[in-house]
Specification:
Largest sheet: 7 strands, mixed
Mean pLDDT: 91
Structural class: alpha+beta
Number of strands: 26
Number of domains: 3
Strand order of the largest sheet: 16-26-21-17-20-19-18
Low-confidence stretches: none
Radius of gyration: 24 Å
Length: 408
């Protein structure tokens, strides 16, 4: 087979797309693997989700000849929010392709590596966004970066955490209040090294970075009308929260949209977990069926079981994931840790209330007929994988979160 753009595109469509969909849908995180994917509530660019709350009227006790209770349906509030645009993109230079023409095996290996690298990094970012706060903030500066002294130098940046950062990432430094870049030179800065839990190094940006800055994935946050606009998924932390707005609805005037947030400030206990499970069941009729926590909280829970001399069973989940089994109700509840859940935190979710609303599954941007398309003004070709989707929860009141748990 000769090497040309047409057969490279066919390889990407026929041999890679199915596996990429599996990896990004089922292997990005245990949480995403469990969620139903649906396009039924997607209308045009928007997700339209009916939020049900309150109790049904028409229920009550009366005397023999009394007036029957007045029927009234549960209250409904229509939420409408736009799908988010998620892209994964890789590039090959024309010179690299030309050099591989005489060795199809070498080209296949090179293409395979590029696709796998792109898929692996897309999985990591999806996992982060799925459990994230929805504000696009990776961390905040704890002190201003040193002013540049000379070209080709580097700057060390002190931040609150580097758990979401990695070498090679491109990040923006922006104002938390407005979403605007702190300076034009602070766009798409490359992380050269992650030095510690609280410091990373970037290439010299020529201008001092103010300590009021937040760090975001390059391009994921912008400023419109003096306010931040975020293009990331509506993550679990956004939903299981109180105050602010959710799906464009003000929680201050719609308190049934608030999740339950409890501060522990101490060791994890089965009593504390059960209290939250019982609370949401009593208040909203929700049945917690999925527990999600940080790595340190998982170790604390395992230590608790060891101290109590209890044997913990494992549960098999969709997507090939495995979970510990928490016994606190009629059915065992899966307990899973995620590297992107913030320290000291545990969620209790009813997955029946959650969906990944999508216009369609992952696909190549190939409306012009070319999966591997020419880059304008560059001797390169690129392929872009895309999905228009967002997470939605129909009953935030049925979800809970504990914070301040002592990690082990």
């Amino acid at each position: 087979m000769s090497l040309n753009m047409a057969n490279i595109s066919e390889v990407l469509k026929l041999f890679y797309l199915k596996e990429l969909r599996y990896q990004l849908n089922d292997k990005a995180s245990a949480l995403l693997a469990q969620l139903e994917k649906s396009s039924e509530s997607v209308v045009g660019r928007e997700i339209r989700m009916a939020l049900r709350y309150g109790r049904v009227g028409g229920i009550g006790n009366r005397p023999d000849d009394g007036v029957l209770p007045t029927p009234r349906a549960r209250q409904t509030r229509q939420a409408a929010f736009e799908t988010k645009n998620i892209f994964a993109r890789f590039r090959l230079t024309d010179k690299t392709i030309e050099a591989s023409k005489s060795d199809l095996g070498a080209f296949a290996n090179m293409l395979d590596q590029e696709v796998k690298d792109c898929e692996a990094d897309a999985r990591l970012d999806l996992s982060r966004q799925a459990v994230g706060s929805g504000d696009g903030v990776l961390c905040a500066l704890t002190a201003a970066a040193a002013a540049a002294q000379a070209p080709a130098t580097t700057q060390a940046v002190g931040v609150t955490t580097t758990m979401y950062l990695a070498e090679g990432m491109l990040v923006d430094f922006r104002s938390a209040a407005t979403g605007a870049l702190t300076n034009a030179d602070h766009a798409a800065c490359e992380i050269l090294s992650v030095d510690s839990d609280t410091q990373f190094t970037i290439a010299d940006t020529a201008v001092e970075i103010p300590n009021a800055a937040i760090v975001c994935v390059a391009g994921n946050v912008t400023s419109v009308g003096g306010a931040p606009v975020v293009y990331e998924l509506t993550g679990v932390q956004t939903v299981v929260n109180t105050g602010g707005t959710l799906y464009g609805i003000n929680r201050a005037t719609s308190p049934w949209l608030n999740g339950w947030v409890t501060t522990v400030n101490g060791e994890i206990s089965e009593t504390a977990i059960q209290r939250e499970i019982d609370r949401v069941e009593t208040k909203s009729g929700s049945e917690t069926n999925f527990l999600l926590c940080s790595k340190g909280v998982m170790r604390a829970y395992q230590n608790l079981q060891t101290a109590m001399k209890q044997h913990v069973n494992n549960l098999d989940l969709k997507g090939g994931w495995s979970a510990l089994s928490y016994s606190g109700g009629g059915q065992p509840i899966a307990l899973v840790s995620d590297k992107y859940v913030p320290a000291g935190m545990m969620y209790g979710l009813d997955l029946n209330d959650w969906k990944m609303y999508q216009m369609a599954d992952w696909g190549w941007m190939d409306r012009d007929g070319a999966v591997l398309a020419r880059v304008a003004d560059r001797p390169s070709y690129e392929a872009t994988l895309v999905k228009y989707a967002d997470l939605g929860c129909q009953r935030p009141r049925g979800q809970w979160r504990m914070i301040g748990i002592t990690e082990h």
